[in-house]
Amino acid sequence: MQFWLTQTLNSLALGGLLLLLSSGFALIFGLMRIANLTHGALFMIGAYVAASVARAGWGFAMAVVLAGLATAAIGGLFERLVLRRLAGNAQAQVLATLGLSFIAADLCLVLWGGDPIPVSPPAFLSGPASLFGFSFPSYRLAVIAVALVAAVVLYLLLERTRLGARIRAGVDDMPMARAVGIRASALFTSVFCLGAMLAGLGGAFGGPMLSAYPGLDADMLPLALIVVILGGVGSLMGTFIASFIIGFVYTFGTALVPDLAYVILFLPMILVLAFRPTGLLGGARA
Amino acid sequence: MTIDRRSFIAAAATAGAALAAPSLVRSQGTAEPLRLGLLTAKTGPFASGGLDMERGLHSYLAANDQRLGGRKVELIVADTGGVPSSARTKTQELVERERAQVLMGPLAAFEALATDDYMRARKIPVFPVAAAEDMTQRKANPWLFRASSTSAQCAHPLADYCAKKLKYKRMVLVADDIAYGHEMTAGFQRVFEEAGGKVVQKLFPPLTAPDYGSFLAQLNRDADAVFLGFAGSNGFRFIRQFNEYGLRGKLALVGGMTALDEAVLRNMGDEALGIVTVNWYSAELANPVNAKFAGAFRKAYGYDPGFYAACTHVSASVLDAALEPLKGQPFDRESLRTSLQKTNASTARGPVKFDAWGNVVGNVYVRTVERKDGRLVNSIIETYPDVSQFWTYDPKKFLAEPVYSRDWPPARNLAA
User: Fold this and answer.
1) Residues B121, B266 within the same domain
2) Cα four-point dihedral sign B204, A4, B254, B40
3) Domain membership of residue A24 as a residue range
4) How far apart are CA B120 and CA B128, in angstroms?
């Protein structure tokens, strides 16, 4: 019983982290049709910035804020200075994001060195919590809560604000959105900033669970890809659901059949690609 | 005119001698520097260890006037990025373009395997860091001298210590799902079970598992202790998450030779205190070579040398000692090899000699994490002298058995 409960909570915590990681990826992919391969690197930068800020004694809240701002700025600059010049050439854009991810990984190595750096969670969340007579890390419970809040905020942002309406219009039909006066240029930059910021926030919140270490980017990027493919291109709701599906599949997969951990992780993605290429909730748009 | 065979051979021999002569004269005339190539990883996920490899070697050369066995050393460093294909290219570059005469590295086992056939064919004396068992066992390269250890060389004595001194009866083994992790746990299990213990659970998380939550939840709570066979930053993350789950104090932890390296310790806190690990080195060793090395290294870089720094430092000591009797002679790989086989060098890890397969026979230390002068250190609590890669087993019988793996020796006591 305890095994199932702990693993369920583990699944939810991992799912929550994946939600933070993937929703930014899904936003950018949905609107700009760019598979932003820098996303793993942005996640890692978020974790490193959070580690440095927390280490400097500014507190975890500040660490999260600065990680989000730093990655948003990097994302915005990259979109303006590089991707903008490659507009219309999706292949070149994807290659540029891949190149940037390598550069970012090496810069992190220069700046933070090759050793893993722990990120301290806020003091009140650092110990285990007692739940029904067994202990579970309280920080992970907090991550589940944060992810749910983030999901609600993102949902409201997209459904209830003007920016959200513009983004939805752009996702559905970019030429038409332009025709009715939506400025694609500003929209692209703000979405890229937002997506990058979500990756950075994911890194900051993931830091206390995973630590910041070289290679974190490469560990996380495939997970983001799996979630987005499973959830369906352009569907934020699909990404939310897919995050938790992957959280459960990965956690129970590694617990019950550890030898097949990666098979179990990638199998749902392959099945979806084969039988429902638009993803679970991807619309059947033209 | 016809040329008979005898005069042809004579002519060829004369020509050969004439061609060879200038180089002989040159190498005798001036003291040619020794061209030493270092294959390391300064970028990529292994960069932490790779940089330490370079620093350990620099440390040795700086303390010895850039000389090994009286020869001036010309050091050429190549960055493999921890990628096998690139390790191979860089090895060729070092040997063919830079004319390296002796090599150190590479760091990772798969890099060593990717460069193995080339190094063999070129007969380059090499001091690897990688620990793969068969490199000095069933597939030994006669030009390879490993001064660190095989994967299981340190796990054997730790298992002995766990069974006899710590009196553990039931243990869980957790290791990275790579050959290194498999070999280490196999060696541990063999010695632990032969001493009367039982391995009740074996877990192999993927090398790149970012989160160990699902593995922590299934640890067998009836065990006395958990053995950690991790490399790089994985042990560090496992222990942090172990504490996060409130397991500290409920299950004891012991670690293999790379689980709590000095490189990882400097980023850890009190959660590491009291954990017992094993290694062939510790920055705390009191022998004169290490006292000098650890002090100088700490002064230069601000932290304690660990596994990787010690690895190249010890290899340099060995090379230094082996070149000493060859002083004044032109470099000759055959005589270097003969000298290496006979060498008995005093190094930072203690005395080092090699067995017939090119692997070190040397001390192995059981250590525990303590706080000293404000930093965490691996204090030595037990020394196993002159440990061989075959532990106490007969080499012939050992080599007749399959190499250590996930499934060999078979685990017979796993709890359902």
Assistant:
1) no
2) positive
3) 14-214
4) 13
Residues B385, B272, single domain; the answer is yes
Question: Is-contact A247 A184, C-beta < 8 A?
Answer: no
Reading the block at residue B329, the tokens are: 């002679």
DSSP state of A126: S
| B48 at interface of A, judged by CB pairs closer than 8 A | yes
Residue A168 in domain: yes
> Of all helices (H) and strands (E), which one includes residue B104?
strand B102-104
Query: How many C-beta atoms lie closer than 10 Å to residue B382's C-beta?
Result: 16
Residue span of the structural domain in which B202 resides: 155-284+363-400
Helix (H) or strand (E) holding A41: helix A39-55
**What's the burial of A57, exposed, middle or buried (CB within 10 Å: 0-12/13-18/19+)?**
exposed
Q: Which of residues 238-257 of B touch A (CB under 8 A)?
A: 240-241, 244-246
* 225-254 of A, contacting B, C-beta below 8 A: 250-252, 254
Q: Is the pTM of this model over 0.95?
A: no
A136 touches chain B (CB under 8 A): yes
How many whole angstroms separate alpha carbon A193 and alpha carbon A72?
Answer: 5
Q: pLDDT (tens digit, 9 = 90+) per residue, A241-275?
A: 999 999 999 888 888 887 777 788 888 888 888 88
Of the candidates B52, B62, B66, B60, the residue with the CA atom closest to the CA atom of residue B304: B52
Considering the domain boundaries, does residue B214 fall inside one? yes
Distance CA B361, CA B223 (A): 33
Structure tokens at A256: 């019950």
Q: Is the ipTM of this complex over 0.85?
A: no
Mean predicted confidence (pLDDT) in B116-122: 94
CATH number at residue B238: 3.40.50.2300
B214: confidence class by pLDDT, cuts 50, 70, 90: confident
Kindly state whether residues B203 and B337 are assigned to the same domain: no
Distance CA B336, CA B324 (A): 10
% of residues, chain B, pLDDT over 90? 75
**Same domain (yes/no): B275, B179:** yes
A190 found inside a domain: yes
Same domain, B280 and B308: no
- Asked whether residue B368 is domain-assigned, the answer is yes
d(CA B246, CA B243): 5
Note whether A68 and A200 are within 8 A (CB): yes
Same-domain status, B248 and B180? yes
Q: Which residues make beta-bridge pairs with B71?
A: B68
Q: Is B214 on the interface with A (CB under 8 A)?
A: yes
Give the Cα separation of B216 and B300 in Å (integer): 39
Residue B244, φ and ψ in degrees, nearest 5: -55, -35
Identify each DSSP E strand in B116-266 by its residue range. Answer: 126-127, 170-175, 198-203, 225-229, 252-255
Tens-digit pLDDT profile for residues A82-137 = 988 888 888 899 999 999 999 999 899 889 988 888 888 888 888 788 777 777 88
Nearest to A225 by CA among A1, A74, A39: A39
Cα A56–chain centre separation:
26
Is the residue at B354 inside a domain?
no
Number of independent structural domains in chain A: 1
Which amino acid makes up residue A83?
L
- Closest CA in chain B for residue A136: B245
3-state secondary structure of A47: helix
B71-84, pLDDT tens digit by residue? 999 999 999 988 89
Dihedrals phi, psi of B229, to nearest 5 degrees: -105, 55
Show residues of chain A in contact with B44, CB under 8 Å. 214-215
Position A31 in a domain: yes
Q: Which residue has the higher pLDDT, B195 or B245?
A: B195
Q: How many helices (H) and strands (E) does chain B have?
A: 13, 14
DSSP B93: I
Contact B303, B86 (CB under 8 A): no
